[in-house]
Amino acid sequence: MHLISKKKLIYPISDLLRKYLRQYGRDVKTSLKYSELMEYENFINVYDRDGNNTYWITVIYNHAVADEINEKLKHVYAILKAAGDVSVINHLYIDRIDFCLFANTGPFRVRVVNRLNDNFDYFYVKKADASRIYGLELEHLLSPNHISYFVNDETLIEEHIIGIPADQFLTKNNTVHQNFEETRLAKEFVKFNERCFVRLLGDMHSSNFVIDVTPDFESTHYRMRSIDFDQQSFEKRKAVYLPQFFKQNLPFVDLVSKHLTPQSIQQYQREERSLIFNRIRNSRYQIRDIVHVMTRDTIAPQENIEQLKEELAKHYNNTEFLRCKTMGHILRISLKILIKGK
Question: Do 183 and 175 meet the contact criterion of CB atoms below 8 Å apart?
Fold first, then answer.
């Protein structure tokens, strides 16, 4: 099933969103600009272990600018990971800079290595997109996952989210074939599906989320984490905000059908909504502020807003959606319904 109607547009950061980012410490001045990374002179294609093209390239810079760029990237990493404590970069070096050829925000993936123990980490430099920033912020506030990111003018810096890409998890048969483990994975997919729908995060097919696997003394725990936030409140079809409708996620849907009863599914949906409600209650003022900004911003074409509000009005049997003028208004009603249900 093809759910995405057209390529995602890039939306600029509005003055109100910029004010919010400054208020909550997400707007940080650095010397690095996204445009500097685009000035590479050559590149090498990146292939996976099986020899398949990954659509990433490793970029190569002129020696005259490479050292300066690397130094700026290390300082950015210090801000992202150590609140600006530059002492952490003394033993770090930039091992590689990769560029993705097809993603909306043109991400650069930076590999940072500690020369003392060869431990490495990644972070990303992207074109700032308002939709993605709303997605990152709502993930941080409404999900069980904390997100480290900041914006410098039109440059977006993001941490690397650790986990097994869901499509690789499926392809390599990483699922432990025991009912107990499969049931836990099915439960997590139901909860993930509910989180995405409540906060209107779209396009969560198996290439756009990862699975964080945590072994316990008696079992294995799973958490599904979004890694792509470009489709926050953008698409017009309700189904785009429900991961269960993507054909790439069919193996997870099959696990749910195999192991969970309708009563169990409803229970896990209620559990997840209760957890989201608690997060709203604990961060009520910040969530109020980001939703307030979002209601006054343009992050989707008007036709998308019109169709989505009609579909959600029908889904919830709630005519409040029909009065919505922006995607932010639609999100506010979605959260309002959740709160009223508590």
Answer: no
In this prediction, residue 173 carries a pLDDT of 56
Considering all CA atoms of the chain, what is the largest pairwise distance in Å, rounded to the nearest integer?
64
**Structure pTM?**
0.93
Helices (DSSP H) in 199-301: which residue ranges? 250-259, 262-282, 284-295
Residue 247 has which token pair? Answer: 């054909």
Amino acid sitting at position 193: N
CA distance 208 to 243: 10
Instruction: Show the domain range for 267.
Output: 164-340
Q: How many domains does the chain have?
A: 2
Could you tell me if residue 147 is inside a domain? no
Radius of gyration of the CA atoms of the chain, in A: 21
> Taking the CB of residue 66, how many other CB atoms lie within 10 A of it?
15
- Look up residue 62 and give its two tokens: 């002129």
Same domain, 304 and 217: yes
Nearest one of 241, 328, 323, 321 to 287, comparing CA atoms: 328
Which residues lie across from 224 on neighbouring strands?
A: 211
Q: C-alpha distances in angstroms, 282 versus 185, 277, 293, 322, 328?
A: 28, 9, 19, 29, 21
Q: Which residue type is seen at 56?
A: W
Residues whose CB falls within 8 Å of the CB of residue 90, separated by 6 or more in sequence, listed in order:
none
Q: Please report whether residue 19 resides in a domain.
A: no
Confidence band of 178 (pLDDT split at 50, 70, 90): very low
pLDDT single digits (tens) 215-238: 877 778 899 999 999 999 999 999
- Residue 149 in any domain: the answer is no
